[in-house]
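Q: Please design a sequence for this.
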């Protein structure tokens, strides 16, 4: 029989404790699809810009928040203090972050819910002028968010893909001397029409290969 120390040593794995030290996020429109994989080769990633995605830019240090609010209904019964049955009835998913880069056309379109494709920039003054419409357009977007942790020989790539994301809310924008211009955006997540699911999860990299036994997934056949 193992001692408590031996049992702990065999049960725990510090290598699976990860932090997202760097993240990149991309947004796509109707001409983009969720990537089947994030890897082009074992050491290089797919080019999301070539897949009609645009960068969402730099975000604040608190990074990205992925909300998952589960609603359930319980069945109570006479003589029981605890429910005798519980059913999940809804899962509201959200994605949110605060963006620091200001002025990109597609970011203004997302935040304001308007089409700026016909707006032009003055070649002499650099000025851009447009009117914000009264009712925002409820356009759906695709999101791909990538997080990276570890050195090249022990690197983990964690990703999330959303096939149907719609802006749910934006926070106040403040102009002042202490903080940069920033815009907080929260998306509601819906089921993707192609996959029939709301979220695609990605996990890979050299670190994931080293820990393949601990992760517990079956290995695909070579070349599959």
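A: Design:
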């Amino acid at each position: 029989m193992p001692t408590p120390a031996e049992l702990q040593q065999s049960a725990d794995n510090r290598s699976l404790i990860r932090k997202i030290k760097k993240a990149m996020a991309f947004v796509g429109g109707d001409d983009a699809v969720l990537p089947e994989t994030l890897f082009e080769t074992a050491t290089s990633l797919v080019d999301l810009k070539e897949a009609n995605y645009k960068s969402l830019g730099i975000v604040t240090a608190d990074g990205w928040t992925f909300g998952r609010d589960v609603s359930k209904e319980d069945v109570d019964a006479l003589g029981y203090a605890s429910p005798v049955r519980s059913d999940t009835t809804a899962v509201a998913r959200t994605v949110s972050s605060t963006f620091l880069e200001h002025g990109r056309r597609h970011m203004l379109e997302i935040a304001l819910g308007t089409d700026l494709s016909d707006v032009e920039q003055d070649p002499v003054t650099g000025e851009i002028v447009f009117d914000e419409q009264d009712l925002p357009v409820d356009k759906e977007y695709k999101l791909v968010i990538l997080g990276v942790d570890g050195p090249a020989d022990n690197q983990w790539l964690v990703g999330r893909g959303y096939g149907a994301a719609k802006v749910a809310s934006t926070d106040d924008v403040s102009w002042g001397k202490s903080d940069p211009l920033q815009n907080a955006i929260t998306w509601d997540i819906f089921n993707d029409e192609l996959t029939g699911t709301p979220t695609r999860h990605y996990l890979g990299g050299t670190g994931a290969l080293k820990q393949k036994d601990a992760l517990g997934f079956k290995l695909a056949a070579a070349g599959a």
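Q: Thanks. Anything notable?
A: The chain has one domain: 20-215. The domain at 20-215 is CATH 2.30.110 (Pnp Oxidase; Chain A).
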